[in-house]
Amino acid sequence: MAGGVIATGSGSEQDFPAKLTLQVFICTAIAAFGGLMFGYDIGISGGVTGMDDFLLKFFPNVYVKKNHAHENNYCKFDDEYLQLFTSSLYLAAIVASGGASLMCKKYGRKPTMQAASIFFFIGAILNVSAMNLPMLILGRLFLGAGVGCGNQAVPLFITEISPPKFRGGLNICFQLLITVGILVANCVNYFTSNIKNYGWRISLGGAAVPAVILLVGSFAIVETPTSLIERGKKEKGLKTLKRIRGVDDVQKEFEEMVRATEVANQIKHPFRELMKKPSIPPMICGTIIHVFQQFTGINVVMFYAPVLFQTMGFGSSASLLSAVITGTVNSLSTVIAIFTVDKAGRKKLLVFGALICMVAQCTIGVILKKYLTETSKVPNSIAKVVVLLICVYVNGFAWSWGPLGWLISSEVFPLETRTSGYFFAVATNMLCTFIIAQAFLSMLCHMRAYIYFFFAAWLIVMSIFVMAMLPETKGVPLDEMVEKVWKKHWFWKSFFKSSDIERPKAMVQLEHQEKPNH
C-alpha cells in the first residue's frame, strides 16, 4: 500500500510512472527533523551567547567587555573561546560525516539518521547539565556528530525516495525544517532570556526534543530502494519502490536502479574513484556550492543575529526579538522554493537570490559605515531599517542558496560515488561554517562595516559561476544525471570520453543477458 496519493508526476524524458504518495510525504517529514536539529543549534548558540548568565558562567571576560561602557562596539564579543563554543560543533561534524558516509553505504540511510539522533540527544544532555567549559564543549562535539550524520543521510534519503518531478520541492523540506529550527530556537531564547540562572540551560536542553522525534519517527519510515538494492536486497527494494511510488508499474525505474547499482558495485574504492576525470565535474560543483552557500554570509546572520543587533545598540531582549523576526522571514521564504524549484529550475533561483543578497549586504554596509562608530549607537530609526534589510537578505537566501546547496549536491553524483561525493560536500559545508563561525567575531572587530562588502563580493563571484559552470538538474532522474547533464554541458563534457559511456553499458547488457529478466 502506498498509504494514500497526493499528486501524480512523471520523471522527465525517462517517464517513470510515479505518484507523490502519503508514504513519501511522511518519510520526508520525519527525516527532515534532522534539519530541525541542525537549525535549532544554529539559532540557540547565537542566542545563549547574548545571555548574561551564560557569559558570566563560561565566558566572564566577554561579560565584562559586553557591559563595559566604553568598549568598542565591533569588538565587545571578540573572544576565541566564545567562537570555539559555536564552531567546535562543525569540526566534529566533519569527522562524523566521514563515518556517516561509510555507514550510509554499508548499513543504509535510515540507521545513519538514527545514529544522528542519538548523538544529538547525548550532546543536548551534556549541554543542559554543563558545569564548566570543557563539559560544554564536549556536548558541542556530540551535537556535531549528530549534525554530521544527519546532514549526510537526510538529504540523500529524501532525494532517493522522491519522484524526479517532485525531488526538488521535497528535498527543500530539509532546509525548511532547518529554518523552522532556527525560528523555534529564537523564540525559546526570547522567553528564556528573562529566566535567571538557568534560562540558558532550558535553551540548550531543548535540542533533545527534535532528536527524540527523529529517533522515534525513524522506526516508521522505509529504507530507500536504492540503498536496499545496493546492499543486495533487490526483492525488498522492488517492494519498497512500489510502495513509495503508489503504482505497480515500476519495472522500468527498478531496472534503472539495478543497472546503476551493478555499475556502482564494481567500484571498490569510491573515494579513489572521485579523483578520476569523469568524477571531477560533479565533485567540483557539488562541493563548491557549499563553499558559496557559507560565503553568502548567512550563518553570520543566523549564528550571531542577537550579537549583531546588540552591536547596533539594541537591548538584549530587543535583539532576541529581532532575531525572531528574521527567523520568521527565513521560514516563510523557504516555502517559496518548495513550490518554484521544480518549475523555475535551480540556476534561476540561485542567481536572483544572490543579487538580492548582494544589494542588501552592500546597503547594510553603507549604513553601518556611516552610523555605527566604535562607541556610538545606531539611531533607533536607522537600526530598524537595518533589521528590515537583514530580512530582505534572509528572504533572498531562503529560497535560493539555503535549500539549493543541499539539493544540488545530493543529486549530481552518480550512485557509485554518491555517498563518498556527498561526504565531501557535507564536509566542505561544515569546514566553511567552522571557518566563518570561528573567524567572524574577529573579522567584525577588524573589518567593521566592511565585512558586509566582503560577503557581497563573494556573491558576485558565485553568480558568475552559476551562470557559466553549473548545469541545470531540474527533473532529471538521478541515474541519468551523467548522460543528460554532465555530458551535454559546454565545459564539463570534455571530462568524458566515449569509453566512459560505453564500458558500463556494455558491462550491464552482458550481465542482463546472463540472468533472467526481473
From TrEMBL:
<dbReference type="InterPro" id="IPR020846">
    <property type="entry name" value="MFS_dom"/>
</dbReference>
<feature type="transmembrane region" description="Helical">
    <location>
        <begin position="115"/>
        <end position="131"/>
    </location>
</feature>
<feature type="transmembrane region" description="Helical">
    <location>
        <begin position="283"/>
        <end position="305"/>
    </location>
</feature>
<keyword id="KW-0472">Membrane</keyword>
<keyword id="KW-1133">Transmembrane helix</keyword>
<comment type="similarity">
    <text>Belongs to the major facilitator superfamily. Sugar transporter (TC 2.A.1.1) family.</text>
</comment>
<keyword id="KW-0762">Sugar transport</keyword>
<keyword id="KW-0812">Transmembrane</keyword>
<keyword id="KW-0769">Symport</keyword>
<feature type="transmembrane region" description="Helical">
    <location>
        <begin position="450"/>
        <end position="470"/>
    </location>
</feature>
<dbReference type="Pfam" id="PF00083">
    <property type="entry name" value="Sugar_tr"/>
</dbReference>
<dbReference type="GO" id="GO:0015293">
    <property type="term" value="F:symporter activity"/>
</dbReference>
<feature type="transmembrane region" description="Helical">
    <location>
        <begin position="317"/>
        <end position="342"/>
    </location>
</feature>
<feature type="domain" description="Major facilitator superfamily (MFS) profile">
    <location>
        <begin position="27"/>
        <end position="474"/>
    </location>
</feature>
<dbReference type="InterPro" id="IPR044778">
    <property type="entry name" value="MFS_STP/MST-like_plant"/>
</dbReference>
<feature type="transmembrane region" description="Helical">
    <location>
        <begin position="20"/>
        <end position="40"/>
    </location>
</feature>
<dbReference type="InterPro" id="IPR005828">
    <property type="entry name" value="MFS_sugar_transport-like"/>
</dbReference>
<feature type="transmembrane region" description="Helical">
    <location>
        <begin position="349"/>
        <end position="369"/>
    </location>
</feature>
<dbReference type="InterPro" id="IPR005829">
    <property type="entry name" value="Sugar_transporter_CS"/>
</dbReference>
<feature type="transmembrane region" description="Helical">
    <location>
        <begin position="198"/>
        <end position="222"/>
    </location>
</feature>
<feature type="transmembrane region" description="Helical">
    <location>
        <begin position="170"/>
        <end position="192"/>
    </location>
</feature>
<dbReference type="InterPro" id="IPR003663">
    <property type="entry name" value="Sugar/inositol_transpt"/>
</dbReference>
<dbReference type="GO" id="GO:0015145">
    <property type="term" value="F:monosaccharide transmembrane transporter activity"/>
</dbReference>
<dbReference type="GO" id="GO:0016020">
    <property type="term" value="C:membrane"/>
</dbReference>
<feature type="transmembrane region" description="Helical">
    <location>
        <begin position="381"/>
        <end position="401"/>
    </location>
</feature>
<dbReference type="InterPro" id="IPR045262">
    <property type="entry name" value="STP/PLT_plant"/>
</dbReference>
<keyword id="KW-0813">Transport</keyword>
<dbReference type="InterPro" id="IPR036259">
    <property type="entry name" value="MFS_trans_sf"/>
</dbReference>
<feature type="transmembrane region" description="Helical">
    <location>
        <begin position="81"/>
        <end position="103"/>
    </location>
</feature>
<feature type="transmembrane region" description="Helical">
    <location>
        <begin position="422"/>
        <end position="444"/>
    </location>
</feature>
<protein>
    <recommendedName>
        <fullName>Major facilitator superfamily (MFS) profile domain-containing protein</fullName>
    </recommendedName>
</protein>
